[in-house]
Write a structure and sequence with these properties.
By secondary structure, this protein is mostly helical. The chain contains 3 helices and no strands. It has one domain. The longest helix has 26 residues. The relative contact order is 0.18.
Length: about 90
């Protein structure tokens, strides 16, 4: 892990990509808007919880920050799987 600043930036980027992809799905499939908005809320929850954990962490504990990174990636992966199910892609 390079720095805490980079980790925050990576989490923000990850969430922004999720929101962007969800927005594209809403434009293409307006009938699925409510389901997709729920995923956007989950993505914003990931952002909030990850930034809170980062700010509360011991600056020297690299395993703690790697855990936060892995949790955010796993949660984003889960959101993308749900988005794929909503769209019906295989």
């Amino acid at each position: 892990m390079a720095s805490i600043r980079d980790l925050k930036s990576d989490v923000k980027y990850l969430v922004s990509e999720i929101v962007s992809d969800c927005s594209n799905v809403i434009v293409l499939h307006p009938e699925k808007k409510d389901d997709v908005l729920g995923l956007i809320e989950k993505a914003l929850d990931i952002l909030d919880s990850s930034l809170d954990k980062i700010n509360k962490g011991d600056k020297k504990d690299k395993t703690y920050f790697n855990g936060i990174k892995n949790e955010a990636i796993a949660a984003a992966d889960d959101i993308y799987n749900k988005l794929r199910d909503i769209v019906g892609a295989k």
